[in-house]
Amino acid sequence: MSLKPDSILSLEGGLVTLEQATLLLRNNEVVGIPTETVYGLAARAQSDVAVRKVFDVKGRPPDNPLIVHVHSLDHARDYGILGEVELLLAHRFWPGPLTLVVPHRGNLPRSVTAGLDTVALRMPQHMLTLDLIAKVGEALVAPSANPSGRPSPTTAVHVLEDYHRRIPVLDGGPCTIGVESTVIRIVHGSCMILRPGAVTADDIASLGVHVDTEPMTEGHAAHSPGTRYRHYAPTARVLLFDNVQDLHHAVSDTKRQVVLSVSQLPYTSWRELSAATLYAELRNADALAMEEILVLCDGFVQRDAALMDRLQRASWSGNRGQDHD
Ligand code: TXA
Ligand code: MG
Questions:
Q1: Ligand 2 centroid from CA 231, angstroms
Q2: Which one of 64, 67, 223 would you pick to mutate in the ligand 1 pocket, going by the greatest count of ligand atoms within 8 A of its CB?
Q3: Measuring CA to CA, which of 30, 270, 285, 308 is 20 to 30 A from 13?
Q4: Are 99 and 122 in contact (CB under 8 A)?
């Protein structure tokens, strides 16, 4: 007897076992899955029907392609053509938070790649999800599981809340990294970072790979459709400070504020700032109807390109109302 998705939902209240998740995915359903970075909204990469459900559920524009999650390097080579540099990087950083954009082999639905001639490939570092991919027997697309306009989820509960328990979720515990993977593309032997993440430019350069350190330009944006879309900015205003004095001047008794910094500051509203907890803090601030989130971006934070990128995107207020990633 095969379990019907509806009965799984009513039995489990949204959380599913590895076996149930496998069955649901094979039936072209969408399942929330854990990774070391953020939770993903998974579907069979080879099924156009399943992939389209991901775009529908998430409310994602169809011109923003998805990452294909594989369980091994050989599995990645079924879908994309990895050159010498990509192989070096995959050997060093997989499984892990690095996504490689490479020419594809033409065996995935156009909906996955948004009609581009490249595919984004990643082998996540989470045992449950690597098992799941092997059990389903095929790669899984998995954009970050936030509905467009929400911060990426870093716990199974975030995913359940975001979709009002209508999407089944495989609980793999809180994400250890907390921000999305580094997305790169090798062009003429040189590495372009399309999205910063836990694998840093220095990590890549330490392997002798030249890293293009030009700031993001229109050219980069053309290479990475996701950079055209704004990320989540909470309802609370996010204000960034590079020194304690300026932050101190902005602290007010009359406003509902949260202060975020790496080292403890003497405010009752203080919360620890880290990549692992940033998205959860943004969610909390909105749940508590905070007016302002004051963030100390000291030298330590400024050297963390992934954290700085997400903070800057969260602090953009000028482009509210545009499409979301
Ligand atoms: O950590 C992660 O990467 C998470 C977890 C779930 O694995 N996934 C994730 O997916 O962040 P998503 O869809 O939210 O972000 C994928 C990014 C987007 O910016 C997209 O534009 C870019 O990767 N991307 C996907 N395919 C691409 C391609 N062929 N060329 C350039 N950029 C691509
Ligand atoms: Mg995303």
A1: 8
A2: 67
A3: 285
A4: yes
Q: Which residues are near ligand 2, the ion (C-beta closer than 5 Å)? A: 144, 325
Looking at the CA of 223, name the nearest ligand: 1
Residues 6+ apart with CB under 8 A from 11: none
DSSP H or E segment with residue 50: helix 48-58
CA distance 251 to 259: 8
Cis status, amide bond into 95, omega within 30 of 0 = yes
* pTM metric for this prediction: 0.93
Confidence of residue 235 (pLDDT cuts 50, 70, 90): confident
The Cα 223–Cα 87 span in angstroms is 20
Tell me the three state secondary structure of residue 301: helix
Q: How far is the CA of 13 from the centre of ligand 1 (A)?
A: 29
Query: Given its phi and psi angles, is residue 162 left (phi above 0), alpha (psi -120 to 50 degrees) or beta?
Result: alpha
* Cβ atoms of 231 and 313 closer than 8 Å: yes
CA of 197, nearest ligand number: 1
The strand pairing partners of 41, in sequence order, are 32
279-290 residue pLDDT tens: 999 999 999 999
Tokens describing residue 6: 């509806």
* DSSP letters spanning 110-164: HHHHTT-SEEEEE--S-HHHHHHHHHHTS-EE--BSSPTTSPPP-SHHHHHHHTT
